[in-house]
């Protein structure tokens, strides 16, 4: 059977700073500073361990157009490790590490093939004689708005055809509309795989043929949350197989906490600590944003509370594999209200309470939940007490929501 196996990665942004963090202890700062390199090393370890035929890097290897020397040297070392294992690397450069940047050129070893500024094809052959044609181009300048997709054409007689493209799926609004394409453009080329880069959120645009944004390899700010990584791809004549490999050393997380039962600072502090312990994950660090809601109205100065709480939580944290670094706390107070006061003040609320009191068919309303094959396993039996507490809770959510507006 003809088969090839490779790693598809993109947007490594080596040496990128992580944004939105203040006053980090030096050893935590150092770990975060290393995180993009950690991801690179993980990719290379995986390639060697899995004995892949080659690696594709679909642009933005380097974060800045100056391609920091530190980043280039580290990248070169990792490429040399691959060379020792006879693993080739197919590289394109994207909008961040485009070819016109002002960078000091460091020669890469011979197993690294970098695509030029026009779409070109490179041939590859495995030790078993399975062949692939690999297509791509590097950004000559930062802004490439042309439809470069029109220059990709199936060439050469190969077992597999793979396109590499750093560009934007048209219609997405959050990213620079570089080298834009539509899904159909890629489909129509008749390739076996499209290795995309540019969008940092992992996205599978198509499964057959696979058209994939693997996302970046290490989140760099709050919005790039959750695990990040690359794909191991196996293609044969009949099917494709994709395995996601997590490469991020540190992930960005937001955790919601309901503080309605906390009466004192200590209660709140303990609840946060407990939550952090529940989140710990072997071998992965986390940058944590706490979103605390329903905070008791008796807490006065919220800014002070927030600063003190953050300090207290950070105080105990050591740089260990399963580090959790709370970097931000959002506080939202519960809205206080009294039923009879609201009802006498406003006809609208009086009407709501009248309807709530008259509700008889709560069990019908939640029936679909109780019939759900998975959901029902987690539910308490629908006793009179449960019905009453559901009703009470619903009223609370509704009124608090209305009062906040
Ligand atoms: Mn990028």
TrEMBL record:
Its EC number is 3.1.-.-. It comes from the Bacteria. Keywords: Exonuclease, Hydrolase, Nuclease. GO terms for molecular function: exonuclease activity. InterPro entries: Calcineurin-like_PHP (IPR004843), DNA_Repair-Maintenance_Comp (IPR050535), Metallo-depent_PP-like (IPR029052), Mre11_N (IPR041796), Pesterase_YhaO (IPR014576). Residues 4-201 form the Calcineurin-like phosphoesterase domain. Pfam families: Metallophos (PF00149). This is DNA repair exonuclease.
